Amino acid sequence: MSQSVSAQASGHGHEHGHDQGELKVLGFWIFLVTDCLLFSTFFGAFAVLRDHTDGGFTAHDFDVTGFILETFILLISSFTSGLAVLAMHKGEKNSLIRWLIVTVLLGALFVGLEINEFANMVEEGATISRSAFLTSFFSLVGLHGAHVSFGIMWMIGLIIQLAQRGITPVTKNKISIISLYWHFLDAVWIFIFTVVYLMGVM
Amino acid sequence: MNTSHFFVTGDPMIYGADVSIVLVTIGILVSLTMLKKWGWLWREWITTVDHKKIGIMYLLAALLMLFRGGVDAILMRIQLAVPNSQFLASDHYNEIFTTHGTIMILFMAMPFMFALFNIVVPLQIGARDVAYPLLNAISFWVFFIGAMLFNISFVIGGSASSGWLSYPPLSETTFSPGPGQNFWIWGIQISGIGSLASGINFAVTILKMRTPSMRLRDMPLFTWSVLAASIAILGAFPILTGTLGMLTIDRMLDGHFFTMTKGGNPMMYVNLIWMWGHPEVYIVVLPAFGVFSEVVATFSKKRTFGYGSMVYSMIAIAVVSYYTWVHHFFTMGAGVDVNITFAICTMIIGIPTGVKVFNWLFTMYRGRIEISQPMLWFLAFVPTFVIGGATGVMLAAAPADYQYHNSYFLIAHFHQVLIGGVVFAYLAGMYYWFPKIFGFELNYTLGKWGFWLWQIGFYVCFMPQYALGFMGMTRRIYIYNQTEGWDMGWAPLNLISSVGAFLMGVAFAFQVWQILYSIKYGKRDFTGDPWDGRTLEWSIPSPAPLYNFAIIPEVKGRDAWWYKKQEMQQEEGYEQETPKYEPIHMPKNSGMPFIMSCFFFVAGFGFTFEWHWMGFLGLIGVAITLYARSFQYNTDYFIPVDEIERTENALRNRSTLIQKTSMEETLGR
Amino acid sequence: MTNHEHTEHTGSMKAYIIGFILSIILTIIPLLLVLNHMMAKTSLTVSILIAAVLQFAIQLFFFMHIREGDGPRYNAMALILGLVFAVTIVFGAIWIMDFNYVVQ
Amino acid sequence: MFKNLINKTKGNFEVRKWIRYGKTAILGLLGVMILSSCDRSKYIVLDPKGPVGQEELRLIIISTILCAVVIIPVLAIFVYIVVRYRNKPGNNAPYEPEWDDSKVLEVVWWGIPIVIIGILGFYTAKTAINVSKPPVKDVTPVVVQVTSLDWKWLFTYPGQKIATVNYAEIPAGVPIQFVLTSDAPMNSFWVPQLGGQEYTMPGMAMGLWLQANKTGNYYGSGASFTGTGFAHMKFRVKAVSQANFNKWAARLKKNSPALTSDGYEDLVRPNTVKELSFSSYPKNLFEDIVNKNGGTYYDHPHHMGDDRHMQTTSTHH
Ligand code: HEA
Ligand code: HEA
Ligand SMILES: [Cu+2]
């Protein structure tokens, strides 16, 4: 029938004067905007329900050091993922992989701390079904945590692909996209940090 | 979960359905095997990433769901035809209106809309496919699997019965235990992912994939309407995902977002679901406007009047529709300031909508109106939609709505806009683009029967419902006149209304007949341009070849094809320069979308029955397919030049050939 | 390789470091404000929200390179519309749920 | 191809004419049926018996007229254009395929709807504000607390300390402050001839002003779906003179059984019941219902009867 081409040459679509890579970044960007709306929905619910504690755990009871630590770890990981992209543009594959691994580890640390925080709360009886406030808290923060975990799995996949194929237009594009994702998660966390934690313990 | 309730029992109608489902399934499986069509089905359809084929699959699914939703409607109308009817029990009736509403909007109107998106948009903008063909296939399969998951609830486990938007606390476990409500949640949740992905896909397609010479302001209005609808999808569907997620958390994890106890707030759900639900109804109506813009211009043989206003009004509708949601719960006491604000925002939508109506009228003004099949539906649309819109504005007057809310006046309003606006438009679109997709026209005479029966049926069914609203009849009641000695005089009008419903049923049957008949006898379209069209899709053969355009078309403004034709006519002996083809880059077929949605089905089914192991297994399957795909690099190919030449020549020869034979046929007849 | 080098999101080391430092600072300020109870409740809320928004902007400009790319800035438009919707969702919910119970 | 279509159209003209007659006939029939079933009293929304309903009816009429003012001309123009510019042989109406723009016309049809919406918006706001206040000022209102249950309506009278199920008596000519809540899925309390509806929601005490000017029995129903027994959630509002109302209350106090806490638990159970009357009900029943479903999280701006010590332990201030 027709010959197959390796996608390596997928700087295709010159006939349209744009390329797949750019297209994918735009699509992903739009996806992030919609993801932002998903988070807004949970933020909205949280804002409405934050006083509905049913006499149980309140926002004053949050573990302050825990969330400060989480915040800085995520901030740093956002920075390291940026460094990874810089390395990629310089064509330094090893350095790129190294920074990605650092990012993954920081992300994992973040998730670990979060799980720990949740576990401690549950131990105190502050479970998701204790009150509307806690339901909205666990859902919002958990949704973010799930995003981070997903990002970690994804990044590991990309590290493997980089190791296999090196820096190609395709892998390059994939890295740009995940770094976008990672920064986005950091941006969302800023609002969780502010609205959930800071305004909670205030 | 008690598995003894796995199969819905105790109702002859459901046993009938069980038997016929099993028979039909066996029939399909056997005939596929006998005809050795499995490979064909897999290669040509299940794994396809071709937007045209995906469009066709959407279309089939939509028609199927129109039937299913329609049968629901007929059942309801039989029950309501006479007072004190014992045809359906309360719970059964409740399931039926819930599935009717859900199916009609989410599994009929939405796929019908995506069918048109897929079939038309790339062709109208001179593109060879959508921006992300694989994602497009995923969208379809995820939608389809969601719809199927929802539909099997009829025979397995039982359906949801708390209304098409399932307000808590009624939809919480306390009041709706069991799988029915879960089916509703997971069916919509899974198919919702597909809708969101389509929104992204078409927004990017329209922004980025146009033939380079087509500026935004040259774009056909249907394409504009798709862009507007996509924007609204992007704004609204994440909220649906989130809201359903919260309801899931309440039900599965014993959460308290919307429960009565422990601080939950049911009104929060109402607030959120309408933040999606209201834009949703405009999402389905915007492309309807787009269809009519094309149809009116084509069959008036005239440029669209006020193109600029048409575009602005659509964008305005898409954005303002985000600011009206409270009109669905004016009576929940959010306060006078809130109500007045949202009442006025709601009315404001009438302004751009009106502008569109006027512009259509003046597109016809000083034109030459050809009453073809699509145009027939437009002519029916105008009065129906305008009156339905006007009753919408009446509903928007908040204190008046205190008297209409949840009454049959409301039922009449939304059927008038949904059927008169959405269904009529999509049917018009189907008639209009049918030759383009399938290469033949649908029979006019049968179509006219269908048309008139729809019209008569519609008015007979829904006009009395306005009156019933004024008589105080509320929605979602399975029985009237029975209790407490109230005879409110609802019986005669309900009977009339039911007659109308049957007429619509007959109308639909005519349309099915029409399609089947035309497959055999329909007028073949060998020109590629049966309506003397104006936009690019008519410049290529019908059905379009795999790659749509052998040469990416050059566009010199609006109505590109119309002016190109004039140019060709004017220049005596206009000879198209021999095209110089280049290899065309295409995506490869992939089984991944189908496989992934099968895993989604497993997940949805597991969570529905609260078999969490199965649910998570399904989700892991989804993740693994995604992961595997991410490692696939060999995803595209080029169609070589000689193959393009062969195809193009064959198409050209076929058209001359058929032209000849069909001439003979016509003479012979 | 391909002709799209110019559209790539490059950004320099300097930009990343500046962005990083700024975001650290903008995290520490609200933290100090809150932990030391430095202001009245409303002004405190407003200040920390402002810090959050600023930090968000930093992520956008220094890390996510919202300004780069050629052609129409569809990404920026999408973002702006998205933010308008996001604000609507949150503040709409708060406003509507903040009842006064009197329809009639 | 053009001509082809035209011929086809002609060929089917007979059929179409026939169908059109059919349609006219059916619509005519419909009209007759509607009119004949139309002694006006059946259209209860259009036949209000109190000031709130009347005010709302006024808005219904205003909005109908305002819509008709645009809709009817639009439809007339529509019919005219379609007839005039039909593509049929011998039609010599002007044909200008390139005419696609007219600033004047555009201004007209952005303008007219704006004006209409402006007027309608004004009346909407005015009515909304009016019906949120007691219909008459100089008469002391009567408070009736309403709780929707599965699937019945409980009315408690904090002034009289009596309770009823599935019917309520009210004095005519006196503004009634209905205070609504639910101890079951949310419903909506609707007495069309007195005025529009309002949701009954768990944990919230909602205010609804209604008033009957004439004595009589008025149909009331739940308007928001609550499950299996929903269709049976009808109730009766009986408006009587003030004197008769007092007599009725006294009679209930004397002759009816008391509603005990256990009795209330019975009522909460999902089933349907007939009309019931009670001489008393547990103290603070309504407040307890509201609070147990989350009422403590809201400030209740208007009183819930004479038990004003509603706890407002709300955490936001
Ligand atoms: C395609 C679907 C669709 C469309 C297009 C519309 C269009 C409109 N709808 Fe409708 N609506 C629904 C589907 C739709 N609706 C559904 C499904 C529900 C109920 C869901 C449920 O509860 O289950 C509903 C419910 C609903 C309510 C809630 C009522 C209640 O629950 O009590 C309201 C209230 O404001 C409303 C208003 C409007 C308005 C103002 C428009 C406007 O957009 C109409 C604009 C059009 C015109 C006005 C006509 C043309 C204009 C002119 C000719 C110009 C001049 C006119 C004037 C100035 C008047 N709708
Ligand atoms: C696009 C959306 C859409 C469409 C097209 C329809 C189409 C129809 N609807 Fe539906 N409807 C809704 C959306 C829609 N509806 C929604 C959202 C609700 C609210 C649900 C809720 O309250 O939760 C609703 C509710 C609703 C009710 C109110 C129920 C209640 O509150 O108790 C009624 C009652 O008359 C009704 C009737 C009809 C009828 C008669 C049709 C007809 O147009 C159907 C046309 C019929 C066919 C296409 C039939 C095809 C079948 C055959 C050919 C088989 C032939 C068999 C026989 C004749 C026996 N609908
Ligand atoms: Cu709406």
Automatic annotation (TrEMBL), chain A:
Highest taxon in the source lineage: Bacteria
GO molecular function terms listed in the Swiss-Prot or TrEMBL record: cytochrome-c oxidase activity; oxidoreductase activity
Cross-referenced PROSITE patterns: COX3
Bilayer-crossing regions: 26-47, 67-89, 96-113, 133-160, 180-200
Domain Heme-copper oxidase subunit III family profile: 1-201
BP GO terms, sorted: aerobic electron transport chain
CDD domains from the UniProt entry: Ubiquinol_oxidase_III
Subcellular location per the Swiss-Prot or TrEMBL entry: Cell membrane
An example Gene Ontology CC term for this record: plasma membrane
Membrane topology of this protein: Multi-pass membrane protein
Keywords recorded for this protein, A-Z: Cell membrane, Membrane, Oxidoreductase, Transmembrane, Transmembrane helix
Membership in a protein family: Belongs to the cytochrome c oxidase subunit 3 family.
PANTHER family in alphabetical order: CYTOCHROME BO(3) UBIQUINOL OXIDASE SUBUNIT 3, CYTOCHROME C OXIDASE SUBUNIT III
Protein name, UniProt field: Cytochrome o ubiquinol oxidase subunit III
Biological source species: Neobacillus cucumis
Lineage: Bacteria, Bacillati, Bacillota, Bacilli, Bacillales
UniProtKB/TrEMBL annotation, chain B:
Keywords: Copper, Electron transport, Heme, Iron, Membrane, Metal-binding, Respiratory chain, Transmembrane, Transmembrane helix, Transport
Domain Cytochrome oxidase subunit I profile, chain residue ranges per copy: 34-556
A Gene Ontology cellular-component term: membrane
GO biological process terms on file: aerobic respiration; electron transport coupled proton transport; respiratory electron transport chain
Membrane-spanning residues: 12-35, 56-76, 96-121, 133-156, 183-209, 221-249, 269-292, 304-325, 340-362, 374-398, 410-434, 446-468, 495-516, 590-607, 613-631
Keyword Ubl conjugation tagged: no
Protein name: Cytochrome ubiquinol oxidase subunit I
Native source organism of the sequence: Neobacillus cucumis
Source species taxonomy: Bacteria, Bacillati, Bacillota, Bacilli, Bacillales
UniProtKB/TrEMBL annotation, chain C:
InterPro entries assigned to the protein according to its UniProt record, in alphabetical order: Cyt_c_oxidase_su4_prok, Cytochrome_c_oxidase_bac_sub4
Protein name, as recorded: Cytochrome o ubiquinol oxidase subunit IV
Membrane-spanning parts: 15-38, 44-64, 76-97
Record family assignment: Belongs to the cytochrome c oxidase bacterial subunit 4 family.
Membrane topology classification: Multi-pass membrane protein
Broad class of the protein's primary localization: membrane
GO MF annotation: an example: cytochrome bo3 ubiquinol oxidase activity
Cellular localization per UniProt: Cell membrane
BP terms from Gene Ontology: aerobic electron transport chain; electron transport coupled proton transport
Any one GO CC term of the record: plasma membrane
Keywords of this entry: Cell membrane, Membrane, Transmembrane, Transmembrane helix
Organism from which the protein derives: Neobacillus cucumis
UniProtKB/TrEMBL annotation, chain D:
A cellular component term, taken from the record's GO annotations: plasma membrane
Keyword Cell membrane: yes
Bilayer topology annotation: Multi-pass membrane protein
Subcellular location: Cell membrane
BP-aspect Gene Ontology terms: ATP synthesis coupled electron transport
GO molecular function: copper ion binding; cytochrome-c oxidase activity; oxidoreductase activity, acting on diphenols and related substances as donors, oxygen as acceptor
Cytochrome oxidase subunit II copper A binding domain span: 139-251
Keywords in alphabetical order: Cell membrane, Electron transport, Membrane, Oxidoreductase, Respiratory chain, Signal, Transmembrane, Transmembrane helix, Transport
Known catalytic reactions: 2 a quinol + O2 = 2 a quinone + 2 H2O
One Pfam family, short name: COX2
Primary location class: membrane
Domain spans labelled Cytochrome oxidase subunit II transmembrane region profile: 37-135
Transmembrane segments: 59-83, 104-125
Enzyme category, top tier: oxidoreductase
Superkingdom: Bacteria
EC number from the UniProt entry: 1.10.3.-
General function of this protein: Catalyzes quinol oxidation with the concomitant reduction of oxygen to water. Subunit II transfers the electrons from a quinol to the binuclear center of the catalytic subunit I.
Protein family (similarity comment): Belongs to the cytochrome c oxidase subunit 2 family.
This protein's name: Quinol oxidase subunit 2
Native organism: Neobacillus cucumis
